[in-house]
Design goal:
With 216 residues, the chain is of the alpha/beta class. It contains nine helices and five strands, in the order H-H-E-H-E-H-H-E-H-E-H-H-E-H. It is elongated, with a radius of gyration of 21 Å.
Length: 216
């Protein structure tokens, strides 16, 4: 079962569900009286309990990648956001692809606030992600790595799942800031992806602040 507060978007949805839950009870009490409100409370509580128990029984689904092209090329999926241009990430991709036919797909999730995501206001988030993606692809070309990219879902785990269906990687590289400065690590993105997907997942830490200090 997923932790419902693992991300801001999940927390926002939980708040909406709670409001709907108590709103339904209040409306039933006003319209049908005290016992109608109690009946709706009991019914909704039983449904919620059944959903929780079902989630615990099912556990995580380990989704495998779907290969749609020739299998003679090593396919690397990179999931990164602010760290897309980091030196450690570029070195990791070059190491994985050097000396063999390879395809690299860089996916940059479109970061957005829960409210804007809920009302489908994602234009600015996707535009910013496209800029970061262009920077990433340019940096990889400087390393001799030819890659293509796309903007992905705001949830990095969902972005991985989408790419598994369309790209079919042999390996997934997730790039984050160091612990303590990484929202993805706080949300358990790397751990969640390893539990959910039946594909090797490599986590690379990119310390952009340290890289800037070295340049100075």
């Amino acid at each position: 079962m997923r932790n419902p507060l693992k991300s801001e978007a999940d927390a926002f949805r939980l708040v909406l569900l709670a409001l709907a839950y108590f709103g339904a009870i209040a409306v039933a009490s006003v319209v049908g009286g005290r016992w109608a409100g109690i009946g709706v409370f009991v019914l909704l509580s039983v449904v919620a309990l059944l959903l929780v128990l079902q989630g615990r029984r099912e556990g995580p689904v380990r989704a495998a990648p779907v290969r749609r092209e020739a299998a003679d090329r090593y396919r690397v999926l990179v999931i990164a956001n602010e760290t897309v241009g980091g030196r450690a990430l570029r070195a990791m991709v070059r190491e994985r692809t050097e000396g063999r036919p390879s395809d690299v797909l860089v996916v940059c999730p479109a970061l957005n606030s829960p409210l804007k995501h809920w009302v489908s206001d994602e234009d600015k988030a996707r535009a910013a992600a496209r800029k970061r993606l262009a920077t990433s692809l340019s940096c990889l070309r400087e390393e001799g790595v030819h890659a293509r990219g796309e903007v992905g879902d705001s949830d990095p785990v969902q972005a991985i799942e989408d790419a598994l269906r369309t790209f079919g990687p042999d390996e997934v590289i997730i790039s984050t800031h160091p612990e303590g400065r990484s929202n993805w690590l706080e949300r358990g993105v790397v751990t969640g992806a390893r539990e959910r997907f039946a594909v090797p997942i490599t986590h690379v830490v990119v310390d952009l602040e340290a890289e800037r200090e070295e340049v100075r």
